[in-house]
Amino acid sequence: MVPLVSVLFGSILGSTLQAHFGLSYNLWWVIGAVVCVAAVGALNFVGVQVSARFGLIFGFFEILVMVALSLTLIVAAGSRNTFEVFTTHYATVPGFKGMSGIVGGSVYAILAFIGFDAAAPMAEETRNARRNVGRAVVLSCLIIGLFYVLTTYASTVYFGPGRYGSFYLAGGGNPWNLIATAVWGAGWIALFIALLNSNAACSNGGGSAATRAQWAMGRIRVLPAFFGRTHPRFGSPYVAVLITYIGGLVLTLWLGEQYTPLTAFALIGTIITGAIVPIYIAVNLACIAFFWRERRSEFNVIKHLLFPILGIVLFVPAFFADLGIKLFSFISPLTYPLSLAGIVIGVWYGLGIVMLIYFAMRHPRRIADTAKVFVDDEDAAEALPA
Q1: φ, ψ for residue 334, nearest 5 deg
Q2: Are the C-beta atoms of residues 27 and 280 closer than 8 Å to each other?
Q3: Are 299 and 291 in contact (CB under 8 A)?
Q4: Separation between Cα atoms, residue 120 and residue 202, nearest integer Å
Q5: Whole-model pTM?
Q6: Which of 7, 211, 230, 338 makes an SS bond possible with 334, Cβ 3.0 to 4.6 Å?
Q7: Each residue's pLDDT tens digit in the chain (386 positions)?
């Protein structure tokens, strides 16, 4: 997640400064990416309380600005406001018409939602985790879902539903800056700050979850033990933080220079989506199996059977669409370098399988311990980072 949002942070900074001040995009996207990684990495280094507070401030400011802009766009759209955008009426992109377009677009929707479960790795650092983590996961989906509906509707009716397929190319790849300038004039500065804040907050949230997961895995020795070290002063999993953000910066700069920042963003997003969807499918299957086998008295046909099956049905075509595997007629093969995503995911999962076999044969206890790396019991609490 760190490279994904850092390269986008740099691209937004570079494209905006180029559009308004004629500055070099190639220079400023690099500066922006470095600043994003360094700043957010430093916040995570000094502890979760500091990084969480900044994340809340960043996120609240972004939502406030985007809601205000969305309402402005809806008013400015006037007679172009229509509920037809909630149907397949405008799903007219060649090869992705009707429901095919809905399934194809779901790939981007999944990418946008990835991270809602990031509250789980923070359980050991959360008061009343059994209650609050669950609420955070569910409420984050509901709130951000409504937020996405509002902002997407507003930009669609203002920009024009019939040409929305080219929205991402408008304004030199920064369409929100373009429409904010059109309706707010100099108010684009507020949006500019909000978008940078948004990316910093995403990097902060994703980095916090990733480093806590690495710390927990280091503690049970599935990862090398040094991942489980905490800073003597800040109590943060500083080794995991350093590895995550330094590695993220290297990957960000290398991919951005190797291709382009926007292409790098698309490639990383394709990899992340393709890697996470099988996990979501597995979680749906696990939900059915767990409540049927272990909690039969609590089994609810709607919650524990129909919803998981519906999730699987929706995720399967999205997975193949994301990787360009032509299982369905509307799926188009990915062009280079996005076509590398399947290879990267295959190698990543292959390494995971090799590790699983190794630990199952040599250290089976460590595999069993992965089931409780995020529990909030007293034994785990003794070593939790601040």
Answers
A1: -75, 145
A2: no
A3: yes
A4: 16
A5: 0.86
A6: 338
A7: 788 999 999 999 999 999 899 999 999 999 999 999 999 999 889 876 666 677 777 778 889 999 999 999 999 999 999 999 999 888 887 777 887 888 878 888 898 888 777 766 666 666 777 777 778 888 888 999 999 999 999 999 999 998 988 898 888 778 999 999 999 999 999 999 998 988 888 888 788 888 888 988 998 899 999 999 999 988 889 999 999 999 999 999 999 999 999 999 999 999 999 999 999 999 999 999 999 999 999 999 999 999 999 999 989 999 998 998 888 777 888 889 999 999 999 999 999 999 999 999 999 998 888 877 665 544 444 444 44
Query: In the numeric block, which tokens belong to residue 349?
Result: 């999962």
Handedness of CA 257, 263, 269, 270 (dihedral sign): negative
- 141 Ramachandran zone, left/alpha/beta (phi>0; psi -120 to 50): alpha
The answer to whether 237 and 385 have CB atoms below 8 angstroms apart is yes
Q: Take residue 12 and report the two structure tokens written for it.
A: 């937004």
What are the distances in angstroms from CA 326 to CA 104, 148, 276, 317, 333?
Answer: 12, 29, 19, 10, 7
Pick the CATH number of 2-381 from 1.10.1740.10, 1.10.3720.10, 3.20.20.70, 1.20.1740.10: 1.20.1740.10
User: In whole angstroms, what is the distance from residue 81 CA to residue 99 CA?
Assistant: 22
Angstrom distance (rounded) from CA 379 to CA 382: 6
Extents of the domains making up the chain? 2-381
The torsion angle over the Cα atoms of residues 369, 374, 379 and 384, rounded to 10 degrees, is: 120
Element (H, E) at 50: helix 48-77
Burial 303-327 (b: 16+ CB within 10 A, else e): ebeeebeebbebbbbbbbbbbbeee
CA atoms within 13 A on the CB side of 282: 5
